Amino acid sequence: MSRDYEIGVQSVVFKDFSLVDLLAELDETDVTHLELWGHHLAPDHDDGAIAAGLDALDAAEVSVCGYGVVDLESPDEAREHAAFADRLGADYLTVNYPPAADAITEELIDLAEEFDLDVGIHNYSSVHHDDLSRVFSTIDDVRGVLDRYDHDRLGLCIDTGHFLVEDVRPDDVVREFGDRINSCHLKDTSEAEIEDVPGAGQLDVASFVDLLDDHADLTAPLVIEYELPQDRATDALRDAVATVQRALED
To answer: Minimal CA–CA distance to 31: which of 61, 69, 1, 67?
Structure first.
């Protein structure tokens, strides 16, 4: 039985590509949904670059499902990113900030309501951060904020790979947070690559999708993410899409 999830990709997969070149690579795959990273297009880019980027996305018939991951250190940094996500037509904004920063959480909730936008708290790991107190890396980190702020626009962007690096089972995260999961980064970790394509290492993609069906109410695409050598990016994406499609058809 085939599930109804769409499949997308995080643009960090093509971190060394321009947006135009990234879109040309996607044209060789079945992926038409993009979570856009600020390196490729951001609110502080000049108006001409933003207009050209929006035109390129439209011409490629690629929809921006989400924007992020945005790193926030203070509440006043959030507005421009929420407004930009809205301008892109994104359904959600993925964010990273210190779990104890309640002022940032409160600002994000206000902006989510203003722009009719979901906010997904993105978990990280020691892969990119030496000080884990500055990021969400455990179930307790996420639970603390979501318990304090029970708002239907505030949820979790579950990054399976980063949880696996920290020995947190994504299955446990799905069971714990259920319908508070509003976005998803399908990533794996393996002996070959600390950030690998879903299904290459510890992640059982079919089991994970089953759990999303059972516990979550996710409407956003399943976004594939990894950071591999750029000459492998497109071939790896094709392989990852095939893996996810098989899981969805099981």
So the answer is: 61
